[in-house]
Amino acid sequence: MGRWRWWLVTIAAGLLLAASSKALDGEALYKEKCAKCHGETGKGDTPTGKSMKVPSMVGDPKVQDASPEELIKSVRVNKKHKEPVKKMSDEELQAVVPVIKRLAGGS
Fold it and tell me: Does the pLDDT value for residue 98 go beyond 70?
């Protein structure tokens, strides 16, 4: 009986880790929540991005030089952001920051 219990605990732990890593996959979150307006390359060149006049983040020194905290604050206060973005948790935004930095050309 002890082996089965250990086996179940191991499987449950693996499922929890898989679920949490999926929830915090910055690339997937960016594609799901951000790319509709900002585009997959960060240029804001999607139909929605163009209609909302979303500026390109590519090569933008304000994005490149911003700290993760500054980027998260900027996302939170931007009135153009819609419900999917406004409902993102701090953890989700933290997962997206490296994607934003990469697209902007920052570190």
Answer: yes
pTM attached to this predicted model: 0.74
Distance CA 70, CA 80 (A): 17
Instruction: Confirm if 91 and 22 have CB atoms less than 8 A apart.
Output: no
Write out the CATH class of domain 25-104. mainly alpha
Closest CA to 90 of 73, 102, 107, 67: 73
- Domain borders along the chain are 25-104
User: Strands, E, within 4-67: which ranges?
Assistant: none
Query: Mean pLDDT in the chain?
Result: 86
Tokens 């500026």, residue located: 55
- Cα 97 to Cα 73: distance, rounded to the nearest angstrom: 11
35 alpha carbon, distance to own chain's centre: 10
Q: CA-CA distance, 99 to 69, in Å (whole number)? A: 14
